[in-house]
Specification:
Layout lengths: L4 E4 L5 H10 L4 E4 L3 H9 L9 H7 L3 E2 L2 H7 L2 E4 L25 H17 L3 E5 L7 H6 L7 E5 L9 H6 L4 E4 L7 H8 L6 E4 L1 H31 L5 H9 L22 H14 L6 H27 L3 E4 L14 H11 L5 E3 L15 E4 L16 E4 L11 E4 L4
Parallel strand pairs: 1-2, 1-4, 2-3, 4-5, 5-6, 7-8, 9-10, 9-11, 11-12, 12-13
């Protein structure tokens, strides 16, 4: 028997998804503060363009009700309530000097009313929040509003307005953020009835960050494409579309999961020097923005952040600092453009004198005789077998070193 589905919020995200779920044979019960949405369901006409919505509206069986009816008639309740920004932060004006989080007022009010009714009816319900939020928001703002009868899941969708129905019913993947993944079975069963796409389960905070990072990744790609468009416009014999179509073919490193795990900055004989050279070209062409300089500043500042992390442990434990690895990537002996050497140079600016050792470059034994602050600068596999001296601090930005007795292991990015 199929679960009964509830929706608290039927805006431009909620309504198309509710229609898609209803079309898949589910009983759907819905509510929205905006009574005009009720009229859409009644008249079966939609005032905005949404591919496939007109057809599904003609045959929908969604029932409208207040929150008590939604709770009573639903097993799983979706909450796609908006988290708006002020106009100043919507990208239609110049970037303001101030910054703000999203406005969670409406989401909190909706969840609070929903949770109160769930507690009143004293029957366990699954509440799925779809709304876009920043990492930490659900635990800080939403979970305190929930009672004992609510199982919470953060399940943001990766859709584009206008094609919401198609994107929802044929997604790249389904993202489920939950405190207890063992409670995800009913949600997984629900999605399995809609499609066969993969389900990715993680913590609530991880899901929050995945959602906004997905959106930011798209911005990054567009900015790169538009930078190449501007370069092509200012030079001769270049069609920017031909350039990008050439990059489309890079499906091993570019259009793939390569280079998408945190660690040290990039290096080698190509990447840093190419960006610096292109930064010169950007200035020569008077580009609107020096994208390439920003990449190098980001790389440098992130390396300095790691240097400050090392320094913070140096100030506490007063141990010598050893950087393991000076090669620009694992399993090579080339050091050109090495981010480990950049780290060494930045540490020296901070009056630290790190020892730098790489088994593929240096002769002799690794400096493991005395306890120290060991920083894994290159993710050589040989470091996995190192036995670090008792009392050592091991800082691993690759998160590959295993815990050992009597050392303090800092897996950067795994808090």
């Amino acid at each position: 028997m199929k679960n009964k589905i509830g929706f608290v919020g039927l805006g431009k995200l909620g309504l198309p998804c509710a229609l898609a779920i209803n079309n898949a044979g589910y009983s759907v019960h819905a509510y929205d503060l905006d009574q005009s949405v009720k009229n859409i369901l009644k008249t079966r006409t939609i005032p905005y363009r949404e591919e496939g919505a007109d057809e599904l509206l003609k045959k929908h069986t969604i029932t409208w009700g207040e929150i008590p009816q939604i709770v009573k008639n639903s097993d799983i309740i979706f909450v796609p309530i908006q988290t708006p920004h002020e106009d100043l932060y919507e990208g239609v004006t110049r970037l303001p000097t101030s910054r703000k989080d999203f406005d969670y007022t409406w989401l909190k009010r909706g969840v609070e009313a929903l949770s109160a009714e769930i507690e009143k009816q004293k029957e366990e319900k699954i509440v799925i929040i779809i709304s876009t939020v920043l990492p930490g928001t659900i635990r800080r703002e939403i979970k305190p509003l929930l009672g004992q009868y609510t199982t919470l899941c953060y399940n943001p969708f990766f859709i584009a307005m206008g094609t919401t129905i198609q994107d929802f019913t044929n997604p790249e993947f389904v993202l489920l953020g939950m405190d207890n993944q063992n409670l995800s079975s009913p949600i997984e069963d629900f999605y399995a009835s809609l499609h066969k796409r993969p389900v990715y389960k993680c913590t609530i905070e991880e899901a929050e960050l995945i959602k906004v990072s997905y959106n930011t990744y798209i911005t990054m790609k567009i900015c790169l494409a538009n930078t190449i468009m501007e370069v092509a416009h200012k030079l001769e014999n270049i069609d920017c579309d031909n350039v990008m179509r050439g990059l489309f073919l890079g499906n091993k490193r570019l259009i793939s999961n390569k280079y998408l795990l945190g660690g040290m900055g990039d290096g080698g004989a190509c990447h840093p020097r190419d960006n610096i050279a292109l930064s010169w070209l950007a200035r020569e062409l008077d580009l609107s923005y020096d994208w390439y300089e920003s990449l190098m500043i980001c790389r440098e500042n992130q390396t300095e952040w790691l240097a400050d992390l090392v320094k913070s442990y140096k100030e506490i434990y007063d141990l010598p600092v050893v950087i393991l690895g000076k090669c620009f990537k694992k399993e090579t002996n080339l050091t050109i453009g090495s981010p480990s050497i950049l780290l060494k140079n930045i540490l020296e600016e901070k009056n630290l004198k790190p020892i730098l050792f790489d088994p593929y470059v240096d002769s002799g034994k690794p400096p493991l005789s005395n306890k120290a602050i060991f920083f894994i600068g290159t993710n050589h596999d040989v470091f996995l077998d190192y036995k670090f001296p008792k009392g050592s601090i091991v800082i691993d930005p690759w998160r590959q070193i295993s815990s050992q007795n009597d050392i303090k292991l800092i897996q950067v990015g795994k808090n």
